[in-house]
Amino acid sequence: MSLITCTNTKTSWSAARTWKWLDETILPVANELATTGFFACLPAALISTAVDRLAGTGIGVGAQDAWYEPGDNTGETPATLLAELGCTHVMLGHTDRRARGEDDDLVARKAAAVHASGMTPLICVGEPEKTDTHTATEHTLTQVRACTAGLPDDAGAYVMYEPGWTVGSAAAEPAHVAAVFDGVRTGLADRPSEVALFYGGGVVAGTYRALRSAGAKPDGLGLGRVVKEANLLREVLDEIATSPEFDG
After folding, report:
1. First CA to last CA across the chain, in angstroms?
2. Which residues neighbour 163 within 8 Å (Cβ) at sequence distance 6 or greater?
3. Which chemical reaction does it catalyze (predicted)?
4. 7: burial class by Cβ within 10 Å (0-12, 13-18, 19+)?
């Protein structure tokens, strides 16, 4: 599997700021991003326009959440509608949403709806506070099992390990990530379809190689603040492209 990359713009940018970012930072490196299967998770109101602006670039457009029930659910955005708009991925269970009470059961319902609508769920997991590796692994594996419980056995899924304490801060220690990845992969060994493990949280140039050196072997990377500045994004893309393991 080639390394996959993604980002989440959250809701801090206006529409105009988002289009400026796409035009000036993302599109100039669209070819490089496309080799990593890059997708950007945007606010629902921007998805339709973003799909049009990115058509033919190889860059996917994802959502930051989705609702799972059909019918009259005022204010929610159903997975079926996102798929109709051209959305390819949906981020679920981000630490921002979990902080407001979203639990694994709700994430599992949403993940099942996203898959049923033909999109790929990107399920965010990880310990909220810094702790020892064993506790982090047990917490994360429990989350992964619960959040994928509603998916068919043959359904693939993306799972992003992004410890809450790394958001907006430094990355977790590579050895810690490697131990968590190993525990999760071992715990899911009997699952018929593969779960792709991403790492997110403080990713900068050097993070990917450090993770690989420690044995973490991520299937994907969640890119945060580095996607906001063209030079920082270029450094990360160059690192990925020149890594011996990369087969993009």
Report:
1. 9
2. 126, 127, 128, 130, 136, 172, 201
3. D-glyceraldehyde 3-phosphate = dihydroxyacetone phosphate
4. buried
**pTM listed for this prediction:** 0.95
Burial, 168: exposed, middle or buried (Cβ in 10 Å; 0-12, 13-18, 19+)? exposed
Q: Tell me the sheet residues that pair with 122.
A: 91, 158
The pLDDT tens digits for 194-228 are: 899 999 999 999 999 999 999 999 999 999 999 99
Q: Could you report the per-residue pLDDT of 95-112, keeping only the tens digit for each?
A: 999 999 999 999 999 999
Query: Tokens at residue 213, please?
Result: 């050196």
Is 70 exceeded by the pLDDT of residue 1?
no
- How far is residue 25's CA from residue 245's CA, in Å, rounded to a whole number? 26
Residue 170 CA to residue 117 CA, distance in Å, equals: 35
- Count the neighbouring beta carbons within 10 Å of the beta carbon of residue 56: 6
Question: Of all helices (H) and strands (E), which one includes residue 62?
Answer: strand 60-63
State the DSSP string of 72-93. --TT--BHHHHHHHT--EEEES
The C-alpha angle with vertex 35 and arms to 29 and 41, in degrees rounded to 5, equals 70
Residues with catalytic function: 94, 162
Q: Which of 246, 164, 248, 167 is nearest to 211 (CA)?
A: 246
Alpha helices, DSSP H only, in 38-124?
A: 47-53, 79-85, 95-98, 104-116
